[in-house]
Amino acid sequence: MARLNVNPTRMELSGLKKRLATATRGHKLLKDKQDELMRRFIELIRKNKALRMDVETDLQDSFKDFLLASAVMSPEMLEEAVSFPKENIMVDIKKRNVMSVNVPVMNFIRKLEGDEGSIYPYGFAQTSSELDDAISKLYGIMSKLLELAEVEKACQLMADEIEKTRRRVNALEYRTIPELKETIRFIRMKLDENERSTITRLMKVKDIISKEA
Amino acid sequence: MPQRKGCVIYMFKIAVVGDKDSILAFKALGVDVFSVYDNEEARRTVDTIARNDYGIIFITEHIASLIPDTIERYDKEIIPAVILIPSNQGTLNIGMSRINDNVEKAVGSNIL
């Protein structure tokens, strides 16, 4: 393992010791963060998967009805029927902090214009019942679709963050901390060696002085 | 431009991008519908609506498969959320495989 390129002095030693303490603490914290993120992520991704399967089958159902409707009705009529929606859907997005990842929290805001009750923006006289089915199904799916958007986005962001955290943890664990330990050991050895050589030198000098006397 | 820092409540619109036959039904619900046909048009449309206060962009898998780079660009942003939906020709399973990719990225192997 490579050791850092530093002078073997007492000052460097105390500096490195401080760095090692910080790195160890950082490593522990990051590891905890990674574990918690992973736990939440796995919870969320399961939900995401189930939700997506649900939404995909429901959507395809609705599309089938719509396809039927477009087969029965003329395209101009169909477009005219849907082109002036009674509703206006907005979404209110807030951020929530989950283990330092900002995940979105979405809320639907539906605004009905005019009379309440009917969700269909057209009269029943010139449209087919398949269109009604398609629209009402789609209306039911919309809230699930929004939940899917929220969960899927959160999963994406969390996956990125987990990857980042894992890299940091690994870099600290396998690179920074061993390097620091190695260097600290090296400096300590060097200092001990210096001390020993000083003692021998002193003994030698003492010997010479006592012989002369 | 909506404020994106902090907990400011701001209304975002919802967009659906795809081929016209698949997404016309969404129009009846008051969602903004953008019909596109080729990848150049799709890219331009997605980029334009991403800048224009849209919080969620639903895009059909057929169109999304033409512009993977553009979709990827918004993966790291909180807003907008680009979500794939199947079109009326069925699903291409891109949405599912994206979930699996996320799992692999986070965990290291596919555990689901």
Number of helices of chain A: 3
Strand order of the largest sheet of chain A: 1-2
N-to-C terminal Cα separation of chain A, in Å? Answer: 52 Å
General shape of chain B? globular
**Roughly what percent helix of chain B?**
40-55%
Summarize the structure in words.
The complex is a heterodimer of chains A (213) and B (112). Chain A is mainly alpha-helical. Chain A has one domain: Helix Hairpins. Chain A is 73% helix and 11% strand. Chain A is built from 3 helices and 2 strands, in the order H-H-E-E-H. A two-stranded antiparallel ribbon of chain A has the order 1-2. In chain A, helix 1 packs antiparallel against helix 3. The radius of gyration of chain A is 35 Å and the shape is rod-shaped. Chain B is of the alpha/beta class. Chain B is built from 5 helices and 4 strands, in the order E-H-E-H-E-H-H-E-H. Chain B has a 4-stranded parallel β-sheet, with helices on both faces. The longest helix of chain B is centred in the C-terminal third of the chain and has 14 residues. Chain B is globular, with a radius of gyration of 15 Å. Chain B starts with 10 loop residues before the first strand and ends in a 5-residue tail after the last helix. Classes of the chains: A mainly alpha (213), B alpha/beta (112). Chains A and B meet through helix 1, helix 2, strand 1, strand 2 and helix 3 of A and strand 1, helix 1, strand 3, strand 4 and helix 5 of B. Strand 1 of chain A pairs antiparallel with strand 1 of chain B.
